[in-house]
């Protein structure tokens, strides 16, 4: 269920409270919720995931991304969250894992990672950054 994007980042479709134990077993130090609350009736509320994460000793942060797209404050928030985890693994999730992966891609571009490397890492996890490739290229160029 968790798809490894790079050495320290996993993306996932919606997780449940039970999935927090799997995250703990992988050494995940931070769970990032990229899903707006109430997006669908079948999603586990963020507060329940947060409580389970904290009980397991895992940090939690919510950086909701709606279908309206991405903003620089979201990129900066994920950058700060990733930095706070140090070298420890991070799990980001949304409905399918796509928004989490795309936000990761934008963050890596802002950090100066080569766009082709970003695309390859995302593709290796089963995600396509095509819809935001122009933004990735722009952020990488402006670093």
UniProtKB/TrEMBL annotation:
Pfam families: BLH_phosphatase. GO terms for molecular function: hydrolase activity. It comes from the Bacteria. Residues 2-110 form the Beta-lactamase hydrolase-like protein phosphatase-like domain. This is TIGR01244 family phosphatase. It comes from Novosphingobium olei.
